[in-house]
Amino acid sequence: MLQIALGIAIGFHSLHWLSFLPPYWWYMTAIIVSLVIFYYGKNHFLFWFSISAFLAALYAEQYLKKVEDIPLNRTNLTINVRISAVINENIPISNIEVEVVNNSFHSSPNNPVLDASHQLLLIWPDAPPLKQGQIWRLPVKLSRIVGRVNQAGFDAERYAVSQNVHGKAVVRHRLSSLPLLVSSRITWRQRLYDKALGYVENLPNRAYLLALAFGDRSGLTKGNWLHLRDSGTAHLLAISGLHIALAMLLGWQIGQKCKLFLPQKRYFIWLPMITGLCIALSYAWLSGFTTPTVRALIMCIFLGILKTTGVYWRHWQLLLAALALSLFIDPFSIYSASFWLSFYAVGVLILITLSQRYFTGRGVFDNSRSSNHLKAFLFQLAKIQLWLLVLMLPIQWLWFGGVSLAAPIANIVAVPLVSIITVPLVLLALLTLWLPPVSSLFWQCADWSLIPIIEGIQWLEGAWYPLSVNLTPLLWGVVIIFVALMLLPLSSFKWLFSAVIVIILCWFIKEPVKSHWKMLVLDVGHGLAVLIIKNNKAVLYDTGNRWENRAVAETTILPILRQLGIKQLDYLIISHDDGDHAGGKTIIIDKLSPQYKYSSNFEKGYLPCQKGHTWHWQGLTFTIQWPLKRVSRARNPHSCVIHVQHSELQGPSVLLTGDIDAIAELMMLKNAPTLDADILLVPHHGSKTSSTHTFIDTIKPSLALVSTSYYNAWNLPAKSIKARYQDRGIEWLSTGNSGQISVTINEQHYQVITERQHSAIQWYRPRWL
After folding, report:
1. Closest Cα to residue 638, out of 696, 576, 555?
2. pTM of the prediction?
């Protein structure tokens, strides 16, 4: 059984490590070889590994075929879609997951026929009230999903795979009678949601109650998410594996009571399991069968069968079986943070129970009589939270870039309250939805039970500690030492622990001051953000775009700086006031407190970005080349142009150009006729209004970098401008095609690394880029 479960789990995980999908004959060969080994050596692992790897690749191949059905270029067409998610009518929403309904429209290269197996992310600003299950006929602009790819931050392409979404559809402005509601039939889940919404709409903690009842977190504000993250309680205030287990336990108890009034027949011994699974399954259905709930459901099924039949499995056997079955059901769940957190956390708990140093054979929940039983229980609970904090460090760092230091304290209080009081009350409220007085009472009591938790976690704001890549050796060292302490007696393995500590300390021997420096042209879509980094210090040139509810600064720039361990900027330079360049400056100033700020505007708190100004930083010289004077409102021609090079004028130089136009280029060269640079940030995203022949021939760059998105409304960069650079033998790289572009510069030369070609090379990445 162990070999089978391991083979299936690792076989499906192999998909996570593939940069491309191998041809089928690879897998066929592996299956044949494994069959021979199985026949002669009785090795189950290789056989199930090869079978699972083949199924995972087959699943991935089908996904890519669905993606290829989406037109490569944005295409206008009309489609029928069904709303997939429950929607809160009181909360405006523009991003909606939908599934395509079989269309009767004629197929053509510009109007492909999509079927019900295609799932899309629908962008519908100012949408009318929507309900899950409704079918709409919509005029859309259809495209494939091309996300921003950086060394840190949100990855839209990976998220699309985890949700099995194949493309993106943006609803166009109303055309004649479209959009049209084709079917107003809504799902039972939406009906239950709407009914529950009527009970909770006036309750202070309604967003949390709906998250606990239906897994819908759309009502949580940024402030709510901040408090949940800082307190480490985000896993509690939504339907999680723990809550499915509680629902199973509640149903089991109901079945046990009912069994007392039934004849003592053999087939009635399954009643507790059946009632427990019915309630757990219903609760998971309400949540939309998210990854944690599916994992918990599988474990509940296994536990129910084992308990009923009297068969004994070890904890790790149960976890492995659940892991294998979960991946068999949804191989793409490995790209979801909830999958890793769910199984990793359960694995940590199993590891804790295996520790003989802190837990005896009686277990944590020993029922032996003792006057200090409650005290001992609380002590063990605190100890579990401490181990969870430490052992969850790697997974927290990999997915979220930090850890909540207050999580043990918050969870000691919140876990019992939510598990023992709030969740049962929510379940009872759901079971009595058609008894308004009773259901209202349960909802109100559930709301009251959350008051101490919500009030408490607000006090823990700021307890989130970001972890940089520099701390990687320390993190793994701490985890290894803690695991060793749990499983190996310190008195018998002193030299082992000493060796581990010495190895960790060797990683932190102070490095000499670095002579090289880096320029990171971040992939921020249509906009600009450039980081210049040396000796763990940073200069930021522009801050990317900002929309109504989010900013590139939050989703990309801040995560990258946190990963690098940089908590403060030395310099912030705003080239000009356009939103795609200065949209995130307020957030950057608030979060990173730059020591010096430069702008072409007359703006309080900013130093003048004006020709002739120079400053030295970390052995580099920053020279402002344009504009000649400050203005009240900096437009494209007034962009702050800066030349960066080693202070001793050695090594490659960089010219940051913002959005200057052709006139600004020629005027700048008139005042600096000898200006040149090895690396040029292409002006104005490669627009035809910039990059004159005179400008390119004077600067003479060997590398041209342009920051833009693959799909943008202006079709930038212009093909003629790209050709203008390439005809001169200048290397051309675009963030829209290459993702983040990292240039490492030393005193002799520079080295270029693009994210899509070096780091983000998974099989699902768009190959047409």
Report:
1. 576
2. 0.87
Q: Cα(33)–Cα(585) distance, rounded to whole angstroms?
A: 59
Q: Give the residue from 384, 287, 302 showing the smallest Cα distance to 338.
A: 287
Give 519-536 pLDDT, tens digit per residue: 999 999 999 999 999 999
DSSP assignment of 460-482 equals: TTT-EEE--GGGHHHHHHHHHHH
d(CA 582, CA 588): 10
Name the token pair of 85: 């998610």
Q: Letter for the amino acid at 33?
A: V
CA atoms within 13 A of residue 642's CA, in its CB half-sphere: 28
Q: How far is the C-alpha of 330 from the C-alpha of 313, rounded, in Å?
A: 24
As beta bridge partners, residue 417 has: none
Q: State which H helix or E strand residue 137 sits in.
A: strand 135-143
Angle between helices 44-69 and 315-329 (to 10 degrees): 30
Q: How far apart are CA 41 and CA 6, in angstroms?
A: 17
Cα(334)–Cα(323) distance, integer angstroms: 10
3-state secondary structure of 81: strand
CA distance 481 to 501: 8
pLDDT tens digits along 294-346: 888 998 898 888 888 888 888 888 888 889 999 999 999 999 888 888 888 88
Look at strands 607-608 and 596-599 and give their pairing.
parallel
The residues, ordered by sequence, that sit 6+ positions from 21 with a Cβ below 8 Å of its Cβ are 57, 60, 61, 64, 763
Instruction: Match 């700086």 to its residue by tokens.
Output: 561
**What pairs with residue 537 in β-bridges?**
534
Query: Which are the contacts of 743, defined by CB distance < 8 A and separation ≥ 6?
Result: 518, 519, 520, 521, 654, 679, 703, 705, 750, 751, 752, 753
Lowest-confidence segment of 26-40, 54-68, 212-226, 362-376 by average pLDDT: 362-376
Distance CA 104, CA 731 (A): 47
Given a contact cutoff of 8 angstroms between Cβ atoms, the answer to whether 266 and 214 are in contact is no
Q: What CA–CA distance (Å, rounded) separates 447 from 523? A: 43
How many angstroms separate the CA atoms of 655 and 682, rounded?
9
Q: In this structure, what is the dihedral angle of CA atoms 209, 249, 294, 31, given to the nearest 10 degrees?
A: 170
C-beta separation of 239 from 284 below 8 A: yes
Say if CB 335 and CB 15 are below 8 A apart.
no
SS3 594: coil
Maximal CA-CA distance, the chain: 100
CA distance 170 to 94: 10
Question: Can you tell me which residue has the tokens 């608030």?
Answer: 590
CB atoms within 10 A of CB 17: 8
Cβ proximity of 680 and 709 under 8 Å: no
R_g over Cα of the chain? 29
Angle at 354 between CA 349 and CA 359, to 5 degrees: 90
CA distance to 148, 316, 704, 706, 734, per residue, from 722 (Å) = 21, 57, 9, 10, 10
Find residue 135's DSSP bridge partners.
82, 183
DSSP letter (8 states) at residue 593? -
Containing 28, the helix (H) or strand (E) segment is helix 24-41
Q: Which residue has the tokens 């310099």?
A: 571
Residue 261 has pLDDT above 90, yes or no: no
Q: What is the dihedral of CA 137, 141, 145, 150, to 10 degrees?
A: -130
What tens digit of pLDDT does each residue of 567-593 get? Answer: 999 999 999 999 999 999 999 999 999
Q: Report residue 517: phi and psi, to 5°.
A: -140, 165
Per-residue exposure over 590-615, b if at least 16 CB sit within 10 Å of its own CB, e if not: ebbebeebbbbbebeebebbebeeee
How far does the chain reach from its first CA to its final CA, in angstroms? 44
